[in-house]
Amino acid sequence: MEKLYTAEVIAKGGRDGHVHSSDGVIDLEVRKPRELDGQGGATNPEQLFAAAWGPCYLGALGSVAVRAGVDVSEATVNVLVSFNKDGNAFALSADLDVHIPNISQEEAQDLADKAHKGCPYSKAVRGNIEVRVTAI
């Protein structure tokens, strides 16, 4: 594998801490959400993961769509990353709701599934967390 780019982010303080990137573009407080008995008021790891996965997924969708001859320039993906209790442990799950205008539901689902197979973030979680991809 040939590394093309490496992002560097330093985290301090866990779920009630701070993250910043080596280039200074990201410089954020991180807080546990109120739903997890935190104070909220700042981003959290689940939001950051969803924010990273969405654009990557749309990039994969664009690649798949070019091969299929479909315009997905107006496509959107709503990425929902959930923090779940799983017995005595915790686990993530995700839902990707994909909207591709001007094509049939069946064609949209086919493209959405193909993009999920090729997206690097989707590959990273495959077999590790429950993921549902739905063309809406």
Q: How would a textbook summarize the main sheet?
A: 3 strands, antiparallel
The whole-number mean of residue pLDDT values reads: 97
Strand content: 25-35%
By CATH reckoning, the class of the largest domain would read Alpha Beta
Level of helix content? 25-40%
Count of DSSP-assigned helices: 3
What letter string, H or E per element, gives the SSE order?
EEEHEEHHE
Description:
The N and C termini lie far apart (35 Å). Strands 1-2-3 form a 3-stranded antiparallel sheet, with no helix packed on it. The chain has helices spanning 45-68, 105-118, 120-125, and strands at 9-12, 17-21, 27-30, 76-86, 89-99, 130-135. It contains 3 helices and 6 strands; from the N terminus they run βββαββααβ. β4 and β5 (89-99) form a beta hairpin. With 136 residues, it is of the alpha+beta class. α1 crosses α2. It has 2 domains: 1-43, N-terminal domain of TfIIb; 45-135, K homology (KH) domain (GMP Synthetase, Chain A, domain 3, 2-Layer Sandwich), CATH 3.30.300.20. Helix content is 32%, strand content 30%.
Chart the SSEs and their pairings.
Blueprint: E1 9-12, E2 17-21, E3 27-30, H1 45-68, E4 76-86, E5 89-99, H2 105-118, H3 120-125, E6 130-135
Parallel strand pairs: 5-6
Antiparallel strand pairs: 1-2, 2-3, 4-5
Write a concise keyword list for the protein shown above.
136 residues; alpha+beta; N-terminal domain of TfIIb; GMP Synthetase, Chain A, domain 3; three-stranded antiparallel sheet; three-stranded mixed sheet; globular
